[in-house]
Amino acid sequence: MSVLKVVEILGNSTVSFEHAIENILKEASVSLREIKSIYVKDMQVTVKDNKVDQYRVNAKITFVVQHNWPNP
Q1: Global confidence as pTM
Q2: Which of 19, 20, 46, 65 could cysteine-pair with 53, CB 3.0–4.6 Å?
């Protein structure tokens, strides 16, 4: 049986929402193992000079909790 945990992460990109989500996954996978899903909670853009400046994503990442102690 596995135990899952959810963390909320903010990510951004100057390219697209999809790229912002890929950035979230890339950075989160450095410290989180066995990521199972990403739930996009909210998306927004910042505007500069009447153009989209940054794509921002607020997401929840679900991953398996790892135990570092041996099983008896």
Answers
A1: 0.82
A2: 46
